[in-house]
Every structure is written in structure tokens, then in C-alpha cells.
Amino acid sequence: MAPPGAGKGTQATKIVELTGKPQVSTGDMLRSALSEGTELGVEAKAFMESGKLVPDEVIIGLIRERLKQPDASNGVLFDGFPRTILQAEALEEITKVSTVISIEVPDDEIVNRIIGRRMDPVTGDIFHVTFNPAPEEIQDRLVQRKDDTEETVRSRLDAYHKQTKPLGNWYGERGLLISIDGTGSILEVGALVTSAVNTV
Ligand code: AP5
């Protein structure tokens, strides 16, 4: 867990490499549904574009279906899920959570990271115009996410503080939370993530 744009997707790549477990990102799943124009995508569109959370029952249904896939049988890395206490309670009934890594980044830094983010639609790789520039040869195909505007970021941060941050205490009380400082460079945060994963 982490605020929007704190580096969940960036660091998830590292955890996938370390553990071999598939990444399950509810944000990516919703974006695929949106671009394919499925019923789920149509339902989620307005919430995502305004920076609000998609209703819990929709997300829980999505996770239930995803965990039935064969590649999920030995565990997964959740990215951006759960995001509310209700989602966490539902997850407890579905499967066992071994560890929760929380990446801590202050709000001002979040805005810089999100405004400068660029995605490669071909590989799904995440870049940043300043902090992690893409190679010259793919610059022309990079895209910016529709919800990566300053106005939407504020609303996403608001949803994070009100609905997701309380989950830190919830998992802390269960002895599952590892908090790491996310303000360093991508490599520095990656080193902290690696040592957190190695303690599991
Ligand atoms: P989602 O896709 O999960 O968005 P998010 O939480 O807002 O997180 P992001 O994907 O924006 O950021 P990130 O933390 O992965 O950062 P990244 O690594 O890209 O969700 C989108 C929407 O879907 C939600 O708003 C909601 O509507 C809905 N949704 C999804 N899940 C839901 C759920 N469970 N319940 C309800 N609704 C849900 O990094 C960001 C940028 O910073 C990049 O450019 C990167 O290069 C750069 N960067 C990363 N680390 C560093 C560093 N250490 N130093 C400098 N730059 C860095």
C-alpha cells in the first residue's frame, strides 16, 4: 500500500522478480476493462477519472475471480488492493495475507511524481520525465494516464488519506505491516523493498 504515485507499480516489478509471484494490480485490471469497453470498465470510468475509489463490491468481485486463475495458486503480490477496511475484511475471508509493505511519501512529492509519469503502452513500463526518463527511441509512443492531472491527484490523495491510510493501523495491529521510507531514489527505495521482502 502507498499513496497514489508513490511507486507501487515501480517497486512491484522488483518484488515480482524476487518472489516469482504474479502482480495483481486492481488499477491495471480496471484500466484494461476501460480500454476494452467492458461492463466493468463502463462502471469504473467515472470513479477513476474523478479520482474516487471504485465501489468495494466491484473490486472484491474482481479479486475473487482473479484468484481463481491457475497462476495465483502459490500466492500473488497485490498492488493497490486492499484500499479500504471493507476490502481488507473481505480479503481475510478469501486468503491469508503474509505481509503488507507500506511505502511512505509526503503529498507534495506525490504531485511531482504523478505529473511527470509516462507509460509505455507496448510494454506497460513506467517512466518519469525527470526521475526515470525513457530511452530516446520509445519517447514518441509514451502516454500520460488520463487521471494524472493535478486536480485528480488531489482527489486521489484525499481518498487515500480518508479511506486507505487507516488500513496501516489495521494491518499494524495484526503484526503484518512493514513501513518503508519512499522518499529516496527508485534504487534506494528498491533496496528497502528488497530487505523488507527478504524478512518475509
Ligand atoms: P491505481 O492504478 O492503483 O493508481 P494509484 O494508487 O493512484 O497509484 P498509481 O498507479 O498512480 O501509482 P504507483 O504508486 O503505482 O506509482 P508508480 O510506480 O507508477 O488506481 C487507479 C484508480 O483505480 C484509483 O484512483 C481508483 O479509482 C481505482 N482503483 C484501483 N484499485 C482500487 C481498489 N482496490 N479499490 C477501489 N478503487 C480502486 O510511480 C509514479 C511515478 O513516480 C512514475 O513516473 C515513477 O517513475 C516515479 N517514481 C516511482 N518511484 C520513484 C522514486 N523513488 N523517486 C522518484 N520517482 C519515482
Number of strands: 6
Strand content: 5-15%
Walk across the major sheet and give the strand order: 1-2
End-to-end distance: 16 Å
User: Which residues sit in consecutive blocks of at least 5 with pLDDT less than 50?
Assistant: none
What is the number of helices? 9
Provide the CATH top-level class of the domain at 1-21 and 97-200. Alpha Beta
Could you say which small molecules are bound to this protein?
BIS(adenosine)-5'-pentaphosphate
Average pLDDT value?
96
Helix and strand element order: HEHHHEHEHEEHHEH
By CATH, the topology of the domain at 1-21 and 97-200 is Rossmann fold
Shape: globular
Rg is: 16 Å
| Fourth-level CATH superfamily of the domain at 1-21 and 97-200 | P-loop containing nucleotide triphosphate hydrolases
User: What is the name of the CATH architecture of the domain at 1-21 and 97-200?
Assistant: 3-Layer(aba) Sandwich
> What percentage of residues falls in helices of 4 or more residues?
40-55%
Major sheet: 2 strands, parallel
Structural class: mainly alpha
